[in-house]
Amino acid sequence: MNRIDVINEIAIKAKETDALLVANIGIPCKELHHVCDVPTNFYMLGSMGLASSIGLGLALARSERNVIAIDGDGSVLMNMGSLATIASRSPKNYLLVIVDNGAYGSTGNQPTVTSMGTNLAEVARGAGNKDVFEADSSKGLREIMKEVNSGMIIVRVEPNNADVPVIKMCPEEIMARFMANI
Ligand SMILES: [Mg+2]
Q1: In this predicted structure, what is the pLDDT of residue 103?
Q2: Per-chain mean pLDDT for the chain
Q3: How far is the CA of 52 from the centre of ligand 1 (A)?
Q4: How far is the CA of 115 from the centre of ligand 1 (A)?
Q5: pLDDT, mean of residues 27-53
Q6: Is the pTM of this model over 0.90?
Q7: Ligand 1 centroid to 74 CA: how many Å?
Q8: In the chain, domain spans
Q9: Top CATH class, 3-180
């Protein structure tokens, strides 16, 4: 399974649950934009590590909406404290999906420490998160997402990037469009 397969499943889940969707910096944003571009997608283009934090803030500020954030292993490793902050609030409307390809996929697939033994599901549990799920197939991910709208899912994928076009909107346009639609 590749990251774009996971992103496709998440886009379907977001549509079904009318969720706001935050995508991690780099190629994940481009893959989501290619799979399903809607105004309730926030393509986080400039702040590595902060997709999970932005998702948490949105979920707390807009508690009547479902929020999903797509993050990566490299970004979660960069902002690991976010896992503890999320645990301390555990909003019932926030689902964080960590796509773990064991690599910094957007910069040339340099290996991350999750390919050397660091287990992000265990880190998330150790940080205090109660609802932590794991998947390594589209079917497994779909089954988990059928049941849950909150917590964390760690999905293991191959380190492959889809060949998709760049997003033509500038960050200001992305932000303005998103804010106007939430
Ligand atoms: Mg990665």
Answers
A1: 97
A2: 97
A3: 14
A4: 10
A5: 96
A6: yes
A7: 5
A8: 3-180
A9: alpha beta
